[in-house]
Amino acid sequence: MIIDFSLIWDSLPALLHGVTVTLRITAFAAFLGISLGTLFGIALTTNYRTLHYLITGYVTLFRGTPMLVQILFVYYVLPQFGIMISPFWAAGLAIGLNSCAYVSQIVKSGIQAVPRGQIEAAKTLGLTSCQTLIYIVLPQAFRIVMPVIGNEVITLIKDSSLASIIGVVELSKEASIIRSTTYDAFSILLAISLIYLIMTGLVSILIKKIEKRYQPYASRM
Amino acid sequence: MLHVCNLTKTIRSKTILCDINFSISSGQVGIFLGRSGVGKSTLLRVLSQLESHEEGSIFLNDEPLTYKSLGTTTGVVFQQFNLFEHLNVLHNITLALIHHKKLPSRQAEQIAKTLLERYGLQDKAQDPVHLLSGGQKQRLAIARTLALDPKIICLDEPTSALDPHLTSQIARFIEELAAEGRIVLLTTHDTYLVKRLEAQLFLLEAGSLIEEASQKKFTEDPSKYPKLQYFLDHPT
């Protein structure tokens, strides 16, 4: 099997376009998943039972069904209820909502891992529950779960390839189009594998830098 | 003056504190003694309003203490210090000043720096908390509590996490806090600290206060307080 470098070179503009779409889907899904997932994670550590049941139901649904089905559901079923949505946003929404289910559990475990003494100390200093959450609990919880959140973002980059099922021309779809016209699966799949590897590698480095920044004060010195 | 009347606390129908009564004046040190598990720490937590109680009342100068008293009226120095490890030394103190007292950052920092200087930590202001030694952490914990200028300071086993040679230093800090007119309440197993302080001694057994004496009266005639004497002779 021979690698056709000229084909890869000629396909680069199309592949780079695919990269931008992949990154945009990932960024939107990560934003939605982390922000909503954090709120859900916080809610799971409160005493509101109704919220617990609702979020647990949501998590069970999104963790228990394939992401592919969720993307198809958002794209094909929502319009039947009058909600028109483009393939790009349908994919971003479905992937983000799926990620939210996982992030909520990650944040919940992070909050629960913060020592009880920290919350008591905040209480003795007259901080309200909300101030304790913002200034004491969340900074420490995120420090604990940062590596797992990083893994979640890397997973999102790879999961974004599922968006191709509803016609979003992201990286894997661009490769698929090139493969169907050139019949050279090896070269082009090798190229996109490398591109995915570079993207996930760069995100890993970025996450490591953020992790280091939020590590206990001293480790940065 | 702190008045504690008929204080009772139960957890899952088990009585932890039973009908506790005592008074202590401003500027005095109160030491709760007793074997592990008799309810000393729980009593301290209830007095500081960290925990609720079912029966009885706690009054400071005829004003009832409530959970809102936490911070400004009562301050707690924990056995394990519970310092905020994600913040530096200075920010451990300024946090409550900025967010509870709503002081501007500059004023909060000024107060914090004064407290750090008082406790010999002025050079550590920007340091991470986990690089401090046990004694330094203890001093920071006291400074953090003092930031809100509480009238009652509760210290749970203040010398248990420290080297024995630091006990004198802690005793001096406690005396200073009392000299400022604060009520200082503490639990300890450290008989050296008990003997070192001019304090009111309270002996607990199974959640009840069984004997009380001032250090001075106890020293004059220990035989009048046989249970206290036995405990201090056999503290472990």
The helix content of chain B is 25-40%
Mean pLDDT of chain B: 91
Quaternary: heterodimer
Give the strand tally of chain B.
10
Q: Tell me, briefly, the overall form of chain A.
A: flat
List the helices and strands and how they pair.
The complex is a heterodimer of chains A (221) and B (236).
Chain A: H1 5-44, H2 49-64, H3 67-77, H4 87-113, H5 116-124, H6 129-159, H7 171-182, H8 185-213
Helix pairs in contact in A: 1-4, 1-6, 1-7, 1-8, 2-4, 3-4, 4-6, 5-6, 6-8, 7-8
Chain B: E1 2-11, E2 14-24, E3 29-33, H1 40-47, E4 55-60, E5 63-64, E6 74-77, H2 89-99, H3 105-118, H4 134-146, E7 152-156, H5 167-179, E8 183-187, H6 191-196, E9 200-205, E10 208-214, H7 215-220, H8 226-233
Parallel strand pairs in B: 3-8, 3-9, 6-7, 7-8
Antiparallel strand pairs in B: 1-2, 1-4, 4-5, 9-10
Helix pairs in contact in B: 2-3, 2-4, 3-4
Describe what you observe in this structure.
The complex is a heterodimer of chains A (221) and B (236). By secondary structure, chain A is mainly alpha-helical. Chain A has one domain (5-220): MetI-like (MetI-like fold, Orthogonal Bundle). Helix content of chain A is 79%, strand content 0%. Chain A has eight helices and no strands. Chain A has helices spanning 5-44, 49-64, 67-77, 87-113, 116-124, 129-159, 171-182, 185-213. In chain A, helix 5 (116-124) runs antiparallel to helix 6 (129-159). Chain A is flat. Chain B is an alpha/beta fold and 236 residues long. Chain B has one domain (2-84, 149-233): P-loop containing nucleotide triphosphate hydrolases (Rossmann fold, 3-Layer(aba) Sandwich). Chain B has a six-stranded mixed β-sheet with strand order 6-7-8-3-9-10, with helices on both faces. In chain B, strands 2-1-4-5 form a four-stranded antiparallel β-sheet, with helices on one face. In chain B, helix 5 links the parallel strand 7 (152-156) and strand 8 (183-187). The longest helix of chain B has 14 residues, at 105-118. The model of chain B has no long low-confidence stretch (mean pLDDT 91). At the A-B interface, helix 5 and helix 6 of A face strand 6 and helix 2 of B.
